[in-house]
């Protein structure tokens, strides 16, 4: 039996993840079944179960995929010199080709994930872990900007991180329900707050 390349395996995993996102976007987390994902992806049960052993694993994988995308965007931005303005760095999360692309569909997916996490213990635990990871990530970003003189050195990195996370979450809620949610407005608002 010929070996399947790592690229093929990753492409298949991405195909499954995209199918989960589309299904959740239409039906919500609680209503999506593995059969829905099979129908949406066009794959066999064996192909899906090769990657994920349960519906819950599929849902958590979507959440992890979103966090990985956010982390990668930040890491790439922080590697640039000179550093981009902090407002641009935060806005870039929504302008990359990723699960967080500022479309109403992507934003509603996040809201559905948050709502499902309130009712499902395993998902709630993963969301709490993700939020803790995001908080550490944002605090590290703040420290990087402090080292470069972009943020006051005496500012509490965790407090600044919490404000930035609040701005991101608020933007997600707005973009899920209003047509006037703009990444440029988020960028300009954060820039104005930075003084």
Can you offer a commentary on this structure?
The structure is a single chain. Helices cover 73% and strands 0% of the residues. It has 195 residues and is an all-alpha fold. It has a domain at 60-194: Tetracycline Repressor, domain 2 (Orthogonal Bundle), CATH 1.10.357. The longest helix is centred in the last third of the chain and has 27 residues, at 121-147. The N and C termini lie far apart (62 Å). Keywords: DNA-binding, Repressor, Transcription, Transcription regulation.
Question: What's the total count of β strands?
Answer: 0
- Which fold name corresponds to the CATH topology of the domain at 60-194? Tetracycline Repressor, domain 2
Structural class: mainly alpha
Main sheet makeup: none
CATH domain class of the domain at 60-194: Mainly Alpha
Q: Count of helical segments?
A: 9
**Cα gyration radius (Å):** 18 Å
Q: Helical percent range?
A: over 70%
Report the CATH superfamily of the domain at 60-194: Tetracycline Repressor, domain 2
Report the mean per-residue pLDDT as an integer.
Answer: 85
Task: Break the fold down into its secondary structure elements and pairings.
Layout: H1 6-27, H2 34-41, H3 45-49, H4 55-78, H5 86-92, H6 104-119, H7 121-147, H8 157-177, H9 183-194
DNA-binding region: 33-52
Pfam families: TetR_C_6 (PF13977), TetR_N (PF00440)
Domain HTH tetR-type: 10-70
